[in-house]
Amino acid sequence: MANQIDFADEQPADFIHSERFVAIRSQMHAHLLGRIEELGTEFGRWSRRAIEQFVDLEVEACARLRRVPVNETELRVVAAELTKELVGLGPLEDLLQDPSVEDILINGHEQVFVSRHGLLRREAIRFADNQHVLRIVRRVLAPLGRRVDESNPMVDARLPGGGRLNVVIEPLAVDGPMVSIRKFRQQPLTPDDLTRLGTFDEAIRRLLEAAVKGHCNILVSGGTSSGKTSLLNALAAFIDPAERVVTVEDTAELSLNHPHVVRLEGRHGSFEGSGAVSIRDLLRNSLRMRPDRIIVGEVRGAEVLEMLQAMNTGHDGSMGTIHANSPRECLYRIEMLAGFAGFNGSEGSLRRQIASALDFILQIARLPNGKRRIVSVTEVTGFGDNIVTTQELYRYDSGVAPDGQESEWWTSLGIAPHTPKLARQREQLLPNAPRSLAPDDGAGRGGWFGRR
């Protein structure tokens, strides 16, 4: 009897990932669509509970009439999945509700990859075909007033519950619909959370708190999915509650834990190109909204000039993110974007403006093991010999501890911040040299933290 119970417990998971499940689900879905067509508009007024009962009865009747080879446990699995198909998001529903899921990537109906804790793995969920994928995607887009079809084969949208959806279909996508869903936490990570998770240590935390409270201008630099937005959210926790913060984003992703936030989001144009509102337009307008700080979700175009202007004209404490592989590459990228935006001054004048605008560059990276770490804290110290001068205050290192365990730490050069904005805190921010064991984050990510 015990063996039979174990088999029954394992059967639904094996069944739901099988070809037989896909075939049975398709057969019963066609039956349900026929019954729904008979009901007409009445079906649209039913509650989810009523639809669940309807699906249970119809699935059981269909299996009996068509002699479908399926047991009672499998019938319940098929009914639950078909309910999600009719009133939810089908195979995506459970993934979207899973708090550990960060990214969902669909490469055609046969390949679904999911990122958890920074690691990407193939998921066993299945779509019946590419039309099934498109049906779910269109259900997501419908409440947003967006559409995807041959005339509009590429869509980028913000999900109501927080997150970002990008879809590319044929003829641009060769192997079926390509869907990318980026999820965001309902409760943003705090500085204490990031310290516990090992993104930075206590010394860096003290510096970041002083930098934000001292109205230093900060850019968070890093690659895709390196944790830039999460770090920016955490930094906002240090902002004085009395200050007015304006956020400007192409697709709203920031969720600042602050009482006075004005959120602005760009608008894509129609298929003919009319009606578009760029981040640059929003940044220009934000300067007229009496902001104490301006936060740019991602600097990737002509808005870089308005951001530098804001930082140089009394909006100290502004922050943003940018895609770059190092602090020096971050400065080069700002120059490149300013050039593309039509900056008319000399190279020297542009670099002088960058040097006077920025105070700190925080370089964050996602390591091969999925950990997200601040790998460099760099201060912009000025302009000389026609270059923007910098000094690195902290650098991330890793190695093997004497007991054979992996260890990681931040090496300090022993230099206090140069900026006059932190003159009063300079003595308190001089690094000391303790070394301590960081608590485990619950996923085996504990390790040595400190400086040497």
Topology:
Blueprint (H helix, E strand, L loop, with lengths): L1 H15 L2 H21 L8 H18 L6 H16 L4 H6 L3 E7 L4 E5 L2 E5 L6 H12 L12 E5 L4 E6 L9 E6 L7 H7 L4 H12 L4 E5 L5 H8 L9 E5 L11 E5 L13 H8 L6 E4 L6 H10 L6 E5 L3 H14 L6 H11 L2 E7 L5 E13 L2 E14 L5 E7 L22 E4 L8 E4 L2
Parallel strand pairs: 7-11, 7-12, 8-9, 8-10, 10-11
Antiparallel strand pairs: 1-2, 1-6, 2-3, 4-5, 5-6, 12-13, 13-14, 14-15, 16-17
Helix pairs in contact: 1-4, 3-4, 10-11, 11-13, 12-13
Keywords:
17 strands; elongated; Rossmann fold; Pilus assembly protein CpaF; 452 residues; alpha/beta; 6-stranded antiparallel beta sheet; Beta-Lactamase
Describe the structure.
There is one protein chain. The protein is α/β, with parallel strands linked by helices. It contains 13 helices and 17 strands. The chain has helices spanning 2-16, 19-39, 48-65, 72-87, 92-97, 130-141, 191-197, 202-213, 228-235, 279-286, 303-312, 327-340, 347-357; strands spanning 101-107, 112-116, 119-123, 154-158, 163-168, 178-183, 218-222, 245-249, 261-265, 293-296, 319-323, 360-366, 372-384, 387-400, 406-412, 435-438, 447-450. The protein has a 9-stranded mixed β-sheet, sandwiched between helices. Strand 1 and strand 2 (112-116) form a beta hairpin. Helix 1 runs parallel beside helix 4 (72-87), helix 3 packs across helix 4 (72-87) and helix 10 packs parallel to helix 11. The relative contact order is 0.08. This is Pilus assembly protein CpaF.
Write a compact overview of the structure shown.
This protein is of the alpha/beta class and 452 residues long.
